[in-house]
Amino acid sequence: MNSRSSSVALIGETGRRNEAPILNAALVAFGEEGFNGASMREVAKRAGTSLSNLYNYFPSKAHLLAELLRRANDELLDRTSRAVERIGDGPAARLREAVKAYVEFVVDHQLAALVAISEVRYLQGENRDQVVRARDRTQAIFDEIVAEGAASGLFATPYPQDAARNIVTMCSAISTWYHDTGRLSREDLAQQHAHYALALVETRPGH
Amino acid sequence: MNSRSSSVALIGETGRRNEAPILNAALVAFGEEGFNGASMREVAKRAGTSLSNLYNYFPSKAHLLAELLRRANDELLDRTSRAVERIGDGPAARLREAVKAYVEFVVDHQLAALVAISEVRYLQGENRDQVVRARDRTQAIFDEIVAEGAASGLFATPYPQDAARNIVTMCSAISTWYHDTGRLSREDLAQQHAHYALALVETRPGH
Amino acid sequence: MNSRSSSVALIGETGRRNEAPILNAALVAFGEEGFNGASMREVAKRAGTSLSNLYNYFPSKAHLLAELLRRANDELLDRTSRAVERIGDGPAARLREAVKAYVEFVVDHQLAALVAISEVRYLQGENRDQVVRARDRTQAIFDEIVAEGAASGLFATPYPQDAARNIVTMCSAISTWYHDTGRLSREDLAQQHAHYALALVETRPGH
Amino acid sequence: MNSRSSSVALIGETGRRNEAPILNAALVAFGEEGFNGASMREVAKRAGTSLSNLYNYFPSKAHLLAELLRRANDELLDRTSRAVERIGDGPAARLREAVKAYVEFVVDHQLAALVAISEVRYLQGENRDQVVRARDRTQAIFDEIVAEGAASGLFATPYPQDAARNIVTMCSAISTWYHDTGRLSREDLAQQHAHYALALVETRPGH
DNA sequence: TATGAATGAGAGTTCATTCAT
DNA sequence: TATGAATGAACTCTCATTCAT
């Protein structure tokens, strides 16, 4: 495990011996085959335990997915909100930092980010609500920054309402194509998307 | 059926009595529950035919999905390429028209667009290749326009390489949140996203 | 199949090829191992078909049990009510015929009778209600006869209220111990229990 | 706990701290869901202990059931035999007392009585034999009394052989319908069934 | 073309039981 | 004595697919 992914562990050790292996196994399985395409048997095999033992940790497959998404979205929200807190002043700087935090999360936890966007649909009830709530709060951070910048005249976009959504869309979509062996480093990617975000809201150079 | 969705029918009548109902049923089923979450029984029920009759039309569930995605991507490619053909001159105008065509496709065939992005992963082999090829050709249209605009100095973005991908990402993501009862009309949406695209590539006003 | 059990077939041929074999297999399985002790695999094996094919006939194990009990109780109610209809006059004669009809049902369909009393508890909801309703209507036939006899003074028992229940209890309990190879024939048994019933309600000889 | 059920405790304190709670939990679980329908987990939960701790007290689920039934049948046999011992003379008086003792047992330990009749079938081997032996000895008490009364001419029934079985059947069936909030008290019920028993064997008033 | 019956594989989940502590 | 973790077998039920008609 490199310094990146351990910087803030998404799935760290808990009191229960097999919890982390199971969650990681589920992450890979759901990521590769989708929630309905992956079987609990496969998760167990990957986790190096028995099928029935899975149920000592999570009461159902749906709960397993829920826990995964809960952790991913909580971590993303945490990183993003802490990033904008650090930078107090100016919508441009804050937007830049928020985007960088988001992108770095996606790079650090690419599979979790991918699963988080593609498998939420299979959650239901309270599990779903909880995850959606965290996701909405993350989105709201971007909404507010863009609204603030638009109000102050710094962001010239005539459509500030939907720009923030597109910024988040671009960032999370990274999880669908990024390969860490590729041309772009984590920092390049963060830098680049911060730039895209400011371009999208049409930041005025002179401001 | 209104003029929009029938303008170019994604799933039109063919010589085979139940083909269109089956494809439409599969579209809804896969859209609502995902490829692996939907069953052939459910597709049959929605299509108003028997389970076994499905196999008179499509040799397998995978072929059914493939046909669906093939039609969606072909239509999207067709619309987009025709849009840029009509407008011969200028990267800005061509980008604008390409985006509008893409967005209009997503609005006209929202469910198909959604299924096309979320369920490709369940295709394999030649079926997958064919679909990916059509998708890449659509993407290439945007790539070329942006490259051309960047080369001519019209698009000032320092990262022209990835900007086109983000444009397509923004357009296709519309399928995940759009509701035709919402605030934005089809034309608004097209207009808005054309604007976003030009902002993203940092079009120079003076050019 | 001898003339007795075919006199009125509990599980006869229907339009569906495997329905009767499945029901009979379930009857034996549930009878031998109890509802929860018997598995659907076992039922399938006994019926000479595949496990999954069971579900083409009955939507669940519970429905299978329900159908079994529904048929048994309906047939019992039918036999008993027809027996008392034939004999219009006199509580003594009517009680005698009702008991004989009941006993003959138990002998003719011993296993079904046994399952009907021992496995109703595993039914729930409407399935259960329906079966209980039929059972109550059968009991009511005896209740009415005893009440009538008590009212007329023919039956001297000071506890007419509960006597009818005990009569039915004695008859149905036959299913728990009877062996058709035993000392008592079907007719002996019917005769004997009719006698017991009249003794229990303390029929006055002179009446 | 009232004087009735503690008069002779079916499941009393032993040297082992959790034995009584486990037995009581099993009694309720088996009573409500049947032997195969109840799980060891459920028994543990009801007993307020852990699943694995159950096996410190009973080597298997079957042994747990066996112990339950052994206690119930022993207590029933004990009560019944002591009842007839107290009353030395006369088949009528002895039958009356035997029935009353049986009925009182059923009322005092209704759930145990119910489980004893409905779940014996799931016992096997020596466990089963032991329980059946106790049950047969209880039945034999009634058999002997009826035989004696028939021999002396006091009981006029032409079918003395099976009458005793029906008497026991009626008594034990009480466990299937009795509610202690109902119309009949424990003493009423005992009295009533003693009366039914004497009627069933056709006791001659003059004798 | 259309159907209902049939099938083997596999799904998620629970079971009684054992093990390590 | 007591526990939580672990296991392999078995459960009910559903799956995509095929067959006979």
Automatic annotation (TrEMBL), chains A, B, C, D:
PROSITE patterns: HTH_TETR_2. InterPro entries: Homeodomain-like_sf, HTH-type_TetR-like_transc_reg, HTH_TetR, KstR2_TetR_C, Tet_transcr_reg_TetR-rel_C_sf. One of its GO terms (molecular function) is DNA-binding transcription factor activity. Residues 16-76 form the HTH tetR-type domain. Pfam families: TetR_C_24 (PF17932), TetR_N (PF00440). The keyword DNA-binding applies. Keywords: DNA-binding. Residues 39-58 bind DNA. This is TetR family transcriptional regulator. The lineage of its organism: Bacteria, Bacillati, Actinomycetota, Actinomycetes, Pseudonocardiales.
